[in-house]
Amino acid sequence: MNTWKSIALALLVPVSAGSPFAQAAEPPGAEVRTTSDGYHLHAGPAASPELTAAIAKADHDLFAVVFDTCNVDALKAMVTEDFEFFHDKGGYTDHSGAHFVDDIRKLCERQRAGTDFRARRELVEGSLAVYPIDHYGAVETGEHRFWKLTPGKPDELTESGRFLHIWKREGDHWRIARVVSYDHQLAR
User: Fold this and answer.
1) Are strands 40-42 and 118-123 parallel, antiparallel or unpaired?
2) What CATH topology corresponds to 49-186?
3) Which end of the chain is more exposed for a tag (fewer CB within 10 A), N or C?
């Protein structure tokens, strides 16, 4: 059996005490159950209030840099080098974080030239959810809205969408590694 088939089969088999997958320590406070035939199951860790606050701040800071200030120098420190972007309207982008930063720089230049409109992003209140990824970082999900900004006019809602972000923790710093942006709907 090839390696990938072995891995796939192992992932389908419940983790028992004797399994190599059971060697990792259970997360502190995780719910643990034993099935009637002796398999040990445990839930993933829950997000602490501190983790949720840290990810909410990282999310806010990321979108402020992209939409509010166009500060590409600050953006460089916020994305991983192996950054990937999956977008229902724009497709899959498998380039580096540096390439993504350059794309945002070009967008900001088009906005300054008046070729593209400036926009703001609004996180839908109550939609943010955070889930820890042991030994890596966190998953963030939610919904957001985008508004067209025109000087002298009220902000105009253009669309809404959903997102899934994977954040990598490096010391006390959070960097975005993956973005999945989907279910974009035009405003009515």
Assistant:
1) unpaired
2) Nuclear Transport Factor 2; Chain: A, (3.10.450)
3) C
